[in-house]
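Explain this one:

_____
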Amino acid sequence: MGFPLIKAVVKSREEIPSKQNQHTKSLVANFCREGHSHIEIATALIKEREAGKSPKELARMVGKSEVWVYSYLRLNNLEPSLKALLDPELPAEQQLGFQLATVLAGLPSNRQFDAYREVAGIKNLRLRLLKAKQIAQEIVVETGTGRKRTPIDDVTMIERAVPRIAGDAAMMGILNTRAFETLVQFRSPTIVDDLIAKIKESITCLEKLKGVIETARAAAYAMKCSP
């Protein structure tokens, strides 16, 4: 390996009495190492969960939040064909994104692949994720396993999203010109063209959103003023 000396810690059988105990200690010791795939993490966590560890205990063990733990545990609910798409060896364009995977994993197994197929053709990753969440919500309502989404939920989403979008755009606008020069110099024309296309697409979507809000405002004003 090229190292003249490798430090090692030898544990006795009393300190590691079982394979499960060995797995737990290995998880804690190796978790901070880079290179773990999503499925490797999910598999390790579910093994500890099945051995009796609570999500709170798992979160403390790996130094993450309980929400993070629940997200990875949910991946184990993915049907095999979708779980295979989390393989980091696959080309990037074929891989299933982590956030999308957690949404799909929350669906009944017999509905997951159909939902994935419905959103897979959407190129914009955020729109793909939003569409998947919409489908998931429809299935939840259909199966009676959750609360039906209300208009106020959408209002809340709009009120949160618009300031965030405006803030991100403003931040990009104050970047030093050198940043953009570096972008076109060190990134391929394909990547730059894709960024420009996404900006144009975003502008179109924002213009459409602006028009819908203005139309709704005009209609509400007219109704208010009518005798």
Remarks:
- Residues 184 and 193 are 10 Å apart (CA to CA).
- The mean pLDDT is 85.
